[in-house]
Amino acid sequence: MARNILEVKNLVKYFPVRKFGKKQFVKAVDNLSFSIRDGEIFGVLGESGCGKSTLGRVINRLEQEQSGTIELLGETISGKEYRKDREFRRKMQMVFQNPYDSFDPRVMIYKSIDLPMKINGIDSSPENRLAKMIETMNHAKLTPAEGLLTRYPHELSGGQLQRISILRSVLLNPKFIVADECVSMLDVSVRAGVLNLLLSTQKELGSAMLFITHDISVATYICGRIMVLYAGKIMEIASGEDILRSPLHPYSRALVSYSPTITREEKQRYRISGEVVTPIDPPPGCRFASRCPIVQKKCAVEEPTLRPMGNNRQVACHYV
Ligand SMILES: Nc1ncnc2c1ncn2[C@@H]1O[C@H](COP(=O)(O)OP(=O)(O)OP(=O)(O)O)[C@@H](O)[C@H]1O
Ligand SMILES: [Mg+2]
């Protein structure tokens, strides 16, 4: 059995907001516990505002949690400031949604890749670093590598630049990668290329990944297991296949209704109505209750806990 590379326990991140002059809290990440195994692509799936990016940013230490613990390779990384910690950055890399934000527009691609490799001690010789870059790019069919490396970010397509930004992270041999909506800005035609690059490099590195997406098709294509979030809470954790073939939680079902691979009857059966809620000082009970097609009285008063359902899956619902 693979060991856990990341252990998250009771993680909490609230943001203070003012509503009609009163101080309240957006409970963006509310008491989440889960673990990610070595070599696993672990998906975080849910609609806009459910806390996916906040979770990714807290794990990546761009944001501090209120409480809870995070362990990376058995070492506690929560409660610490790692923003500029080189050793930590080498272990954990992040790929963002917009590749044009991840590169300095005035710096040639070669320099943008070389500098982090140099700083992180990947190789002391510039020639060796360049050779590694070219080899990795050729491997990813980003050719001619030399021609691409001497360009500036705006001289590349979004798909090319995103693949280069993934390779830049990968060249640092990270143990863990957080990828936040890394294909959602790209054309459907280049998405598969970027996803396949992530899959193949992840396999080669044997690293693990937290893969954030709102797209059920992308999630089930790339992820081993998927964690479904709603308004800051975990609704279900299951393999991509289980989520797609037999979603248990009514919210997972609603997400699956967007998948092009299911039948029209399933689509009808799974669909829900209503708008996604922002968890500002949410009422007790299940966060999903206001949109749930199988809601009962108990759901408004008692919050369902995440319980095991066999086959490595967990569901937070009183009535599945
Ligand atoms: N710095 C902040 N201050 C106040 N509220 C915030 C802050 N950052 C996030 N939030 C709120 O926390 C909630 C979760 O936001 P988050 O960005 O994590 O969602 P998301 O799932 O990544 O959404 P999307 O799919 O749109 O990227 C939202 O309600 C958001 O408005
Ligand atoms: Mg986000």
Please give a structural write-up.
The structure is a single chain. The protein has helices spanning 52-59, 86-91, 99-102, 109-119, 126-139, 145-149, 158-170, 188-205, 216-222, 240-245, 250-256, 264-270, 297-301; strands at residues 4-19, 22-37, 41-45, 67-72, 75-76, 92-95, 176-180, 208-213, 225-230, 233-239, 307-308, 314-315. It has 320 residues and is of the alpha/beta class. The protein has one domain (4-106, 152-315): Rossmann fold (3-Layer(aba) Sandwich). Strands 6-7-8-3-9-10-12-11 form an eight-stranded mixed β-sheet, sandwiched between helices. A four-stranded antiparallel β-sheet has the order 2-1-4-5. The radius of gyration is 21 Å and the shape is globular. The mean pLDDT is 93. The structure holds adenosine-5'-triphosphate and magnesium ion. Adenosine-5'-triphosphate binds next to strand 1, strand 2 and helix 1. Magnesium ion binds next to helix 1.
Mind telling me the CATH class?
A: Alpha Beta
Summing up helix and strand content along with how strands pair, one would put the structural category as alpha/beta
Number of domains: 1
Number of strands: 12
